UniProtKB/TrEMBL annotation:
This is Acyl-CoA synthetase (NDP forming). Gene3D superfamilies: ATP-grasp fold, A domain, ATP-grasp fold, B domain, NAD(P)-binding Rossmann-like Domain, Succinyl-CoA synthetase domains. The lineage of its organism: Bacteria, Bacillati, Actinomycetota, Actinomycetes, Pseudonocardiales. Pfam families: ATP-grasp_5 (PF13549), CoA_binding_2 (PF13380), Ligase_CoA_2 (PF19045), Succ_CoA_lig (PF13607). Residues 7-102 form the CoA-binding domain. InterPro entries: ATP_grasp_subdomain_1, CoA-bd, Ligase_CoA_dom, NAD(P)-bd_dom_sf, Succ_CoA_lig_flav_dom, Succinyl-CoA_synth-like. It comes from Lentzea jiangxiensis. GO terms for molecular function: acetate-CoA ligase (ADP-forming) activity; ATP binding.
Length: 680
C-alpha cells in the first residue's frame, strides 16, 4: 500500500484552518472526528492556538506534536501554498485541500494550483484536491471532511462495508453515499478528489482495490482518464463501475477521416471500459445498482439468464430488458421445462420467463421446487426473481427460497421487487441480510445483472502481434498506400496508375472490360464528393474518363470493378487514450447510419469478432433478405491485420479505409487514405 492509504488509515489528523465558530467549515472535521469516535490524535491548527472543541490547538503543523499522517487544509486559496510548505516541512505525506479558488476559477486559479502542486511534489507530499469535500474511512472513523452528511441530527452508521466510492465531485460523491446508506448499503470508504491536481480519482480507486476488505469500486469522473490507470484498475481483480459525465459533448479532435468523426472521445471511453471489463453507469441509480450487485461474492460464468416470476407482466418486461442489455434469455433444457410443467399450474408458464403465478401465495413450495429445477439447469448462469406487491410474510418465504438456491448453486440471484415499501417495510433489510441485491423494477435488476456479467466475463491476457511496419509518410498517394496495405496482407483491387488514355484502355481490358477510374491528387481525400471517381467505365469510354480525371492535375488510377458486397469503413485514429480501431457500416453513408464500434489498440484475441457482432446492421453480413452471406471470417482477419499494421506507428495519424467491401468470398479495401495531424 502507498501513502494514499493514509486517507483512511491515518492515526493522526491535522485540521489546518480549524475553528470553533458555529457553521464554519473548519469546525466540521474536528466535530465529526470527535462525534464519531475517531481513536487517533486530533490536531486543530489555528494561528491563535488555544483550544477547539476541547482539543489543544496549534499555530501551525510545525508546532504540533508529530508524526502527523494526514492534513486537512481548509483555509483561503491564497494561504494554501504556505500551508503546503508547512506540511512538507513537518514531514506529512498526504494532505487534502478542501479550499476552492483554483483551476475551477480560471487562469489565475490554475496558475496557483500548478504552483501549489509543484511545491508539494518537490517536498514529497501528495495532494488530494483542491476544491473537494474530503475523505472518510468508515473502518477507522477517519472523518477528514466537512460534508453535511455527517452533521444531520441522526448519526450515520459507520459500520464499514466493502464498497469504495470515489468521486471528483464532493457533493455528488457524498450524496451518492447517502443514497446508498439509505438503501442499506455499507460503504467502507468515500473519497472525493476535486480538481485531481495531483492525486487522481483513478489513483485512489486503484489504491482501494488493494484493500483486502474491498468488494467493489464505484467512481464518478469528470475528465478523460489515463488509459494506463484504467488498465491497472481493470486488472486489480475488483469489480468497478464508473459514472463519467460529458456524454453530450462532441469531444475528440477534428479528424480528416470519417472514422475520427465517429469515434469521439466519449465513444472511445465507452469502448475502453467495455474492453477492460469496467461497467459504465448512466446515472447515480445505475452506479449504486451496480454496487449492490458487487456486494455478492457470486459471479456468473456466462450471460445466460433465467427469469422466475409471480407476475407475467414483470417477466415479459425483464425478458425485453435481457435482450436490450446484451444478455441471453436461455431457453432452458427440455428436461427443465418438463420438470417445471409438473410443478407450475397449467395457467402458468414453464418456458423462460418462468411464471409460477400468484398460486405461490397459497402454496409456497411451488417457488422452492421451481427454483431448485431452474438452478440445476446448466444453461442458466444467473437467476432474476420478479415479484409485485408482496407483503412481509410472502417476502420472507421468497427470500428463504432464493437465498437457499443461491447458496446451493453458487449462481448470482437478483431480485426485482415492484411494490411500495409500506407493503413490506422489512423486505429490503431481509433481502440484504440474505445477500440478495434488491431492485424496484425489472429493468434495473437486469441492468445490474448485465453489470455483474461485464465485470465477470473473461478477458484475453495477450495482445495480437504487430507487423513491425514503420509509420508511412503523410504524402503517400492512394496507389502507394494500397501497395503498403497489400504488403501487409490486405486485399486491394487489381489495377495500376496510367499515364495515357491508351494505357487506361489497356488496363480496363485486363481487368475484365469494366473498371473504376480515380484521380490521384495529393491531399484529395474525399474524391467522390468532387466527381474524381468514375465507376463502371467500359473500354470504349476509357479515353474520355482518363481525360476528365486528368484535368484534376494528377495521375489516374484504373482498378478492377469489385462485385457486390456489404460496404464498411475501417479506420484508426489516435486519441487521448491511445490508438483506436473503428469499424462502421455504410461506406460513404457511415456518418448517416451512425452504426459503428471501436476498440483501443492493441487488440486481444476475440476483439475483432466482438466488434463485428456489435454492429446493429450485422444482419446485412449474415445475408439479409435473400442476399448471400458475406465472408465474416475474412472481415475479422482484415480488422486484425489493420491492427497489426499500425501497431508500430507513431501517434497523431489517421488511417481511413473507406469503403471496405465484404464479399461472398473475401474482403477488399476499395479506397484508402492516411493523414498525419499537423502540430498546433
Amino acid at each position: 500500500m502507498s501513502e494514499l492509504s493514509l486517507l483512511w488509515n491515518a492515526e493522526s489528523v491535522a485540521v489546518i484552518g480549524a475553528t470553533e465558530r458555529e457553521g464554519a467549515l473548519g469546525r466540521k472535521p474536528v466535530a465529526y472526528l470527535q462525534r464519531y469516535g475517531y481513536a487517533g490524535r486530533i490536531l486543530p491548527i489555528n494561528p491563535k492556538g488555544g483550544t477547539i472543541l476541547g482539543y489543544q490547538a496549534y499555530p501551525s503543523v510545525l508546532e504540533a506534536p508529530g508524526p502527523i499522517d494526514l492534513a486537512f487544509i481548509v483555509v483561503s486559496a491564497d494561504r494554501v501554498p504556505a500551508a503546503v510548505d508547512d506540511c512538507v516541512a513537518a514531514g506529512i505525506k498526504v494532505a487534502i485541500i478542501a479550499s476552492s479558488g483554483f483551476a475551477e476559477t480560471g487562469d489565475e486559479g490554475a496558475a496557483l494550483q500548478a504552483e501549489t502542486v509543484a511545491r508539494a511534489r518537490a517536498g514529497g507530499l501528495r495532494l488530494v484536491g483542491p476544491n473537494c469535500i474530503g475523505a472518510v474511512g468508515f473502518g477507522n472513523k477517519v472523518m477528514a471532511t466537512f460534508s453535511p452528511l455527517f452533521s444531520a441530527d441522526a448519526v450515520v452508521s459507520l459500520e464499514p462495508g466493502g464498497l469504495g466510492i470515489v468521486s471528483q465531485s464532493g457533493a455528488l460523491g457524498f450524496g451518492a453515499a447517502s443514497l446508498g446508506i439509505e438503501r442499506g448499503m455499507r460503504p467502507g470508504w468515500v473519497i472525493t478528489t476535486g480538481n485531481d491536481a495531483d492525486v487522481s480519482a483513478l489513483e485512489v480507486l486503484a489504491e482501494l482495490a488493494g484493500e483486502p476488505a474491498c468488494t467493489g469500486l464505484l467512481g464518478y469522473l469528470e475528465n478523460v482518464p489515463d488509459v494506463g490507470a484504467l488498465r491497472s484498475l481493470a486488472n486489480s481483480g475488483k469489480p468497478v463501475a464508473l459514472l463519467k459525465s460529458g456524454r453530450s459533448e462532441e469531444g475528440g479532435r477534428a479528424a480528416a477521416s470519417h472514422t475520427g468523426a465517429l469515434a469521439t472521445d466519449d465513444r472511445v471511453l465507452d469502448a475502453a471500459l467495455r474492453q477492460f471489463g469496467i461497467v459504465r453507469a448512466g446515472d447515480i441509480d445505475e452506479l449504486l445498482d451496480a454496487g449492490d450487485a458487487f456486494t455478492s461474492p457470486r459471479r456468473p460464468k456466462g450471460p445466460r439468464v433465467a427469469i422466475v416470476t409471480t407476475s407475467g407482466g414483470s417477466g415479459i418486461l425483464a425478458a425485453d430488458d435481457v435482450v436490450a442489455q446484451g444478455l441471453e434469455l436461455t431457453p432452458l433444457q427440455d428436461g427443465t421445462r418438463a420438470a417445471l410443467a409438473e410443478i407450475i399450474p397449467s395457467f402458468g408458464s414453464a418456458n423462460n420467463p418462468v411464471d409460477i403465478t400468484a398460486a405461490v401465495l397459497s402454496d409456497p413450495s411451488l417457488f422452492d421446487r421451481s427454483l431448485d429445477v431452474i438452478a440445476a439447469d446448466d444453461t442458466v448462469d444467473m437467476i432474476i426473481g420478479c415479484f409485485c406487491v408482496m407483503t412481509d410474510g410472502d417476502v420472507d418465504k421468497a427470500v428463504r427460497a432464493l437465498a437457499k438456491v443461491a447458496e446451493k448453486s453458487g449462481k448470482p440471484v437478483l431480485v426485482s421487487r415492484t411494490g411500495a415499501d409500506f407493503l413490506a417495510p422489512n423486505a429490503r433489510a431481509t433481502l440484504r441480510e440474505a445477500g440478495l441485491p434488491d431492485y424496484p423494477s425489472p429493468a434495473r435488476a437486469v441492468r445490474a445483472a448485465a453489470a455483474l456479467w461485464q465485470v465477470s466475463k473473461p478477458r484475453a491476457a495477450d495482445s495480437l502481434a504487430g507487423l513491425g511496419i514503420a509509420t508511412p509518410p503523410a504524402e503517400l498517394t492512394e496507389p502507394e498506400l494500397k501497395a503498403l496495405l497489400a504488403r501487409a496482407g490486405l486485399s486491394v483491387p487489381v489495377g495500376r496508375v496510367v499515364a495515357t488514355a491508351s494505357e487506361a484502355k489497356a488496363v480496363v481490358d485486363e481487368v475484365g472490360g469494366t473498371a473504376v477510374f480515380k484521380a490521384v491528387v495529393p491531399g484529395l481525400v474525399h474524391k467522390t464528393d468532387v466527381g474524381a471517381v468514375k465507376v463502371g467505365v467500359a473500354s470504349a469510354d476509357a479515353a474520355d474518363a482518363f481525360d476528365e480525371l486528368s484535368a484534376f492535375g494528377g495521375a489516374v488510377l484504373v482498378e478492377e470493378l469489385v462485385g457486390d458486397g456489404v460496404e464498411l469503413i475501417i479506420g484508426v485514429h489516435t486519441s487521448d487514450l491511445g490508438p483506436v480501431l473503428t469499424l462502421g457500416l455504410g461506406g460513404i453513408f457511415t456518418e448517416a447510419l451512425d452504426d459503428a464500434t471501436s476498440r483501443l489498440l492493441p487488440l486481444a484475441p476475440g476483439d475483432a469478432e466482438a466488434m463485428v457482432r456489435e454492429l446493429r446492421g450485422k444482419a446485412l453480413l449474415d445475408g439479409a433478405r435473400g442476399r448471400a452471406a458475406a465472408d465474416v471470417p475474412s472481415l475479422v482477419r482484415t480488422l486484425e491485420t489493420v491492427a497489426a499494421l499500425v501497431s508500430g506507428w507513431e501517434g497523431g495519424f489517421e488511417l481511413d479505409l473507406n469503403p471496405v467491401r465484404v464479399l461472398e468470398s473475401g474482403t477488399k479495401v476499395l479506397d484508402a487514405a492516411h493523414v498525419i495531424a499537423k502540430e498546433a
